[in-house]
Structures are given as C-alpha cells and as structure tokens.
Specification:
- The complex is a heterodimer of chains A (260) and B (302).
- Chain A has 260 residues and is an alpha+beta fold.
- Among the domains of chain A are: 84 residues, Ubiquitin-like (UB roll); 90 residues, Fumarate Reductase Iron-sulfur Protein, Chain B, domain 2, CATH 1.10.1060.10.
- Helices cover 37% and strands 10% of the residues of chain A.
- Chain A has a five-stranded mixed beta sheet, covered by helices on one side.
- In chain A, a hairpin with a 2-residue loop joins strand 1 and strand 2.
- The N and C termini of chain A lie far apart (57 Å).
- With 302 residues, chain B is an alpha/beta fold.
- Chain B has two domains: 120 residues, Glutathione S-transferase Yfyf (Class Pi), Chain A, domain 2 (Up-down Bundle); 156 residues, Rossmann fold (3-Layer(aba) Sandwich), CATH 3.40.50.11810.
- The longest helix of chain B has 17 residues.
- Classes of the chains: A alpha+beta (260), B alpha/beta (302).
- Chains A and B meet through helix 6 of A and helix 3 of B.
Chain lengths: 260, 302
C-alpha cells in the first residue's frame, strides 16, 4: 500500500470496500448521521464499517466486558432501547449513540476492615436512599438484571439478594446514566458482591488441602506423562475424555479415578 | 391461613425488634404473615405536592406487587409504610387523571386502580381476630404492667386513612387490655414525636419528646408502647439528651406493641430482639416477671 493510499479517510475506504459486499445495505444513523451498512453486522462492526476507529468503548467484543453500552431509538417509537454494541445486530433506521463511560463515584474503602453489616453499604453509598423506585435502571439494563430490585435489596439490608440479582452485571453504567436519584448502582453492586464473596459465603475449607497436595507434587507425575505424550495420543485422550454431566450430583465420580 | 405482608426497609435493619415478634406472634395466632416475594421502599413519606407524582410510583408499585400475588389485602406493620401505602392507594382509587398518568409512566407494570385494601396489623388483631379471642390466647398476661399507648401520627392522620378515632383512639388501649396489661391513658398519646424534623433540625427533637415522655410518666406509666420506628428513634435519642439537659429526668423503656404481644403469647423472648430497644427494658420486664431472671441482652442504650 502506498503512502498516499494510507492517508485515505476510513469512510472512503469503506465506500471502496462496499463494492465487494453482496449483503443487503440498510440505513442506520450514528450520532445523527446516516450510513448504509450491510445487514447482519453488529452495531460495533457497523460503526467500523462506517469508518469509526474504536479505541474506547470496545473491549472484549464478546458481551462480557461492559465497555460498549449503547442506546438507540427507532422512528415512531418513544421507547429508548439499549444494547451492547458488540452483541446487537443493526436494524434499519436505528438512531445509535454509544455511552462507553458514564461518570459514577466509587467509594474508597479499606475492604479488610469492612463487615457484612448492611450499614457498611449505607455509609459508603448514602445516595442509595435517593431511589424513588422509578425502575428506569431496570428498563435500561442490557443484561436484563432487575436493577431496581437489587437497589431495594440493599436498602432492605439484604446483601446476599443484591449480590445474587446482580451476578450478571458487567458494569456498563447504563443504569447509572438513567438514574433519577443519581445513584452509582454498579459500584454499589460490586461492593455487595465483594462483601458476599469474602465475608458471607463460608470459606471452602477443602481448598487449602488441595493447594497443599498440588504444591507437594501429588499431580506432577500425571502432568509429566501428558507433557511427554505424542500429538496423536493427546488428541485421543482429549476426544475420549470423560465430561461431568450437567445434571451430575455432588457424589459424581469419573469411571477412571486414577487422577483423583 | 396467611396474609400478604409488606415489611418495609427499616423493619429489616434498625427495627427488627418490631418485625421479629410480629411474625412469630401471627404464626402462633394461626394467621401467618406471608411476605411479598418482591417489594421496594414504600416511598418513606407521602408526598403532599399535588404535581409530584413521581414519588407515588414507589408505593403504587408495591400495591401492584400485592395484586400480582392475587391478594386484595395487604398487611403493613411500620406506621410510616402504612400511611404512605394507604394514601397512595386512595389516590389511585379516587383521582382518575393522576391514576392515568402514573399508570402510563409505569407501563412495564399492570394498570392499577386501588383494588388492594391496605391494613395495619393492629386492625387485623382487632377486626379479624378480635380482642376477646386474642385474650384467650394469652399465656403470660402482662399483669401490673402500666403501659401508655403512644400512637404518634401515621396511624391516625389524615382522617381518611385513620385506623381508629382521630381524636380519641382506643385500639392500642384495647390491645393492651387483651394482653392483660394496665393501659395508661395520657393526653399526649397522639402528639407528634418530631418526625422527620430529626433530619433538618435534630436539636429540636428533645423538645418534641419532652412533653410526651413527661406526661406519660406523670400519668403513672412505666413504659411507652409504640407502633412506629421513627417515634422509637426520636423518643429514644431524645431521652438520652434529656437526661443530660434536665435534672431529675427519668428515662422510660420503649416497647413496640408486637414485643408485648409475643411476650404475652408466651413466645421465646429472643424473637423480640430486645437488644435493639431504647430505654433499657430488661429490668422492668424482670420486675414484672415477664422475663426469666436468666435472660439477658445488651441494650443499645437510651
């Protein structure tokens, strides 16, 4: 590629590539400007197709990092829709804007000094009590979390329930962007899950024993065997491995117990 | 048989000594309190601004939750929650224009028009169980306990939602009689404790509390019987202040009515969470033989 070509604007490149594309083109609006993009693309890919180079607001591209929170509307529908740009495929006439980051203050705390008392959350996030139960947060969650119920759980001092309800939170911040009470929900929920994980769930007592066994070399021999195995042998072992069934009970054991 | 029950946030944190004995007592009385599986804050205080409908959303959403359970009656226990929910319910029943606005805002929920009847636990005891039947269930009569019923505001005002006569309520007096106690009437039993002035003018609260506590004492009360966590908070804190301010001021144990109910029904005193009470109730309960000598708890003071 010559230096001259490299200087071309991304949008022009997109126009050039358009000729190769056989997919049907549909109109979308990115920040109010109309683009024709191939149907079937995700919002994120459509933005790149339109010429955007994403250095923020795009992370894992797999729907788990929460970097690409996006809002959109369609003509004739007052409802605000939300999506993750990397997951949602474009639809005709979408008006799209990404909200890759939304300011929300995260309380500073010495986690080791915290207890599992509900008042810890109240003290660090007193704005919790500004919630009016308008439910805008829940309507805005691309993960389908019952955000307002989780806020309610925190107000009720139920950290376990708040942690359970927000297990799928990816901290995209869309709830926070829509909050009438100006809460920083996603930071509060993170605190709830931390307290739950570290101070409420019982410690897994058997873990220390397993770590000790690993450190003492109980499994070294098996690993060495695998390391020395030929490729064909490895493939065979992999293909014939026994997988624990989804419905297995607590007492399930593999047929071959050599490695236990 | 069970009753749909709305607890409220405070009853799950600071006022567990109001809820615990109520849940245990109602189970003992054969009318189990069945907590709504989903509920949010009641709104905390009923908004009086005509055009402030957003603050009606929280209480109405809870009433919708009760409907989702197929219930047409919702039992409340916290006096503030009772007031907020019942007034919001009245609004939804009687004001068609506001009802429409609220329903269209909450378009993710089923429409609501005031179908649920909001009641307070005292009403259940009076109207569904009855004082006579209640007194027959009493195993440990609260004999010689001179308890003054203190209503505060939220169960009696405004008139449209009052659970009893606004001017001369009898429901707590009759309740205490059924438990075998000696109720002490006093003129300040419906005087305001200062309510949410605690937030904006906390220094004024002792002056709201002083006439209430002094009057109950001068009428011969040994303890005050409460229904509201905010009354408990204000009166409890004020007592601590007044002891410092007024020489000779005598602190008085504060009980929730549900704690006395559980004791009278002969339930394990541990359901009462007495450690959360203001005014050191332990010695009075032992003096009246309502708590065995071995029982002990660490009161929070006041």
């Amino acid at each position: 590629m010559s230096a001259k070509q490299r200087k071309k604007k991304p949008a022009e490149t997109a126009v050039k590539e358009e000729k190769k594309i056989t997919a049907k083109l549909i109109p979308i609006y990115i920040m109010g400007k109309r683009y024709e993009v191939p149907e079937g693309l995700t919002i994120m890919k459509a933005m790149e197709y339109a010429g955007y180079i994403l250095i923020r607001g795009c992370g894992c591209r797999g729907g788990t990092c929460g970097a690409c929170g996006t809002v959109y509307r369609k003509p004739g529908d007052y409802k605000l829709q939300v999506a993750l740009a990397c997951q949602k495929t474009v639809e005709p006439d979408m008006y799209i804007a990404q909200i890759p980051f939304f300011p929300a203050n995260r309380a500073a705390y010495d986690f080791a000094g915290l207890t599992a008392a509900p008042e810890e959350v109240f003290k660090l996030y007193p704005e919790l009590f500004r919630c009016v139960a308008c439910n805008s947060c829940t309507k805005t969650c691309p993960q389908g979390i019952e955000v307002m119920d989780a806020v309610s759980a925190l107000k009720q001092g139920n950290i376990v329930e708040a942690a359970r309800l927000t297990f799928d939170c990816i901290q995209c911040g869309l709830c926070t962007s829509r909050c009438f009470g100006e809460l920083a929900q996603y930071h509060m929920f993170q605190l709830a899950r931390r307290i739950y994980g570290a101070k409420i769930v019982p410690r897994a007592e058997h873990l220390a024993g397993m770590v000790k066994a690993v450190n003492e070399g109980r499994y070294d021999r098996f690993l060495d065997e695998l390391k020395q195995a030929k490729e064909d042998e490895l493939k065979k072992l992999y293909q014939e491995r026994e997988v624990e069934p989804m419905t297995a009970g607590e007492d399930w054991k593999p047929k071959d117990t050599t490695y236990l | 048989m069970s009753l749909a029950y709305y607890p409220g946030c405070t009853l799950k944190t600071k006022a567990r000594n109001l809820e615990g004995p109520a849940v245990a007592s109602m189970e003992a009385l054969g009318l189990k309190l069945d907590e709504l599986p989903r509920w949010n804050c009641c709104g905390a205080v009923y908004s009086l601004a005509e055009d402030d409908l957003l603050h009606q959303v929280a209480p109405v959403r809870n009433l919708i939750r009760a409907r989702e359970q197929g219930k047409d009656e919702l039992v409340t226990l916290c006096a503030f929650c009772f007031n907020t929910l019942k007034r919001a319910n009245l609004l939804m029943k009687e004001d068609a224009e506001k009802r429409n606005t609220i329903n269209s805002f909450m378009n993710e929920e089923a429409d609501y028009s005031g179908e649920v009847k909001v009641v307070h636990l005292l009403e259940v005891l009076r109207d569904e169980i009855g004082w006579e039947a209640l007194s027959q269930k009493v195993k440990l009569p609260l004999r010689e306990l001179k308890a003054a019923p203190y209503y505060g505001c939220m169960l009696l005002r405004p008139r449209e939602i009052a659970i009893d006569s606004v001017e001369d309520p009898a429901i707590l007096r009759e309740f205490l009689k059924a438990l075998g106690a000696s109720p002490v009437d006093f003129p300040e039993s419906t005087r305001c404790c200062g309510s949410y002035q605690i937030v904006s003018s906390p220094d004024d609260i002792p002056e709201y509390a002083r006439p209430i506590l002094n009057s109950a004492l001068s009428h011969g009360a040994e303890a005050l019987v409460l229904t509201c966590p905010l009354c408990d908070y204000n009166l409890g804190r004020a007592q601590q202040e007044l002891v410092k301010k007024q020489s000779g001021f005598r602190k008085m144990p504060l009980f929730y009515f549900t704690q006395l109910l559980a004791l009278a029904l002969g339930l394990d005193p541990r359901v009462c969470n007495f450690e959360l009470n203001h005014g050191s109730p332990e010695s009075l309960l032992k003096e009246k033989n309502l708590l065995s000598q071995s029982e002990s708890f660490q009161p929070i003071g006041g």
